[in-house]
Amino acid sequence: MKPVEIFIWLLSWTVMASPVLAVAADDDFKAFHALNRLAFGPAPGDVEKVRAMGVEKYIAQQLSPDSIPLPENLGRKLDGLETLRMDPARLFREYGPPIERDRQADPEAVKAARERARIVLEQAARARLWRAVESPRQLQEVMVDFWFNRFNVFAAKGLDRLWVGAYEEQAIRPHALGRFRDLLGATARHPAMLFYLDNWRNTAPGSRGARGKQQGLNENYARELMELQTLGVDGGYTQDDVIALARIFTGWGLGRPRGRDVNQGGFFFDPKRHDFSDKLFLGRTIRGSGVAEGEEALDILARHPATARHIGFALAQYFVADEPPPTLVKLLSRRFLDTDGDIRAVLDALFHSPEFWDRKYYGNKFKTPYQYAVSAVRATGANVVNVRPLYGMLMQLGMPLYGCPTPDGYKNTRAAWLNPDAMTRRIGFATALASGRLPLEQPVEESGFMRLKSNGMKRETAPTAEPANDVDLAATLGGRFSPSTQSAIDAAPRPLHAALILGSPEFMQR
Known about the structure:
Strand order of the largest sheet: 1-2
Distance between the termini: 30 Å
Order of helices and strands: HHHHHHHHHHHHHEEEEHHHHHHHHHHH
Strand content: under 5%
Oligomer: single chain
Largest sheet: 2 strands, antiparallel
Radius of gyration: 24 Å
């Protein structure tokens, strides 16, 4: 092993051993801390912008993303993604499997249709990664990442390969800084969630509409709605509440692809499959009234104190510490209840709390693979045309985009992502990025990158872009390195400096 390889290996173990404590002047501390928590880390020039406008104005601006214009280059990229503007019904009509339309469809036609449908998921991935790297509305992108994991759907489950992008675009993104109740309702009605957690099958036993796969009660969505999305596992509900909620949501499902009984969003309530009896849910009687019962149940869940605590804890854990201070969780819970679930107001309270600015929490959050890859590309200022290397990196690190099979989504804690193999892969990515060997700026064919295997992405043998400038990179990151890290960087050959910066313990954390 070469000396530099030994150094990199030691760095990977250093970051696993203990958090990195950075020391900075007060103004620099606030600017970098805000960019590492409200954004996916600083891009070139960001620190200077935050210093010039002041941290307070930066926070206010990020809390109102519509006030921030998007770069023309990013707008042109997004405008070219046609499927991003399609509703679920149209996506099914244009990209759905022939087997759904013709039970005698030729197997080759089915295979060809599946290949053609790859474009939907590929365009969703492009949009997510382009926005995360380039959008100045960074808090909005951070919150899309946060909420998608709270309301996760798995793209590899059947028809969700067609709908996951529309789900993010129509159910998650518009409400990322809005009202929690609106977010809850949008996810509950979206075909991606209805299909993923099987609520489209949920049918009152013995009802007139019971047929085929819709023969009886399905508790999947009801259980995850309470355990993961609202009340939390210790939220005080019982199995009887799960059953009652499942009965409340009977009949919520998907319309026929070409039928008149489906709106553009793809949601359809079938009264023939609904249980119209009264239900006792969380100690309250909900009268049998059809689709309105589900809306009433969502109202109850959105305003429940246990939901406020659950969401408050999740936000405090994401933005402050893996083990968030109870005082902060209590503050956020109270703000959630007082504002009727106004996410923007809760975040405003979080970003102005003494716990958020406590220096003991500075640089103590270990980056997820998604946060690491995006922050590394942002720090170098690369123009991302081709997202394939980022997508491949996320697959290698066990965090494929839209690829979490379980309803709880990806974790954001140190214990979930810190291990020797992951460190080796991150450092390999850092080396390729810093040396200009990731073809981020090279145009690619419309289809194909979803076929990457999780055991590795294509390795480029020659640089395709200019290597990262280590001096500029260090300036973007504020030169916030421990003496041992800085000494090791200085001792390495100059061409390796940028790679060591991106592979350093300090950069692994935010």
